[in-house]
Please model this.
Amino acid sequence: MNKIIEYIKEAYNELMNKVSWPTWLELQNSTTLVIIGSIIFALIIFVMDLISDNILSTYYQKISEFF
Model:
């Protein structure tokens, strides 16, 4: 049981004294960057989906006219 208590004390000490936590401004900037990146990535996927849908629709239409 002493090993568990010692482990918890050392983990707490490391989190409080050795870990560098971001400031509120750094956290806001990182969050903004992630949101913008996610929106850009979603738009790229949306455009790729539209293009592939258009290509496949045209292809299937041409195939159905052929047969």
The mean pLDDT is 95. The helical segments are 2-17, 24-66. Residues 23-67 form one domain.
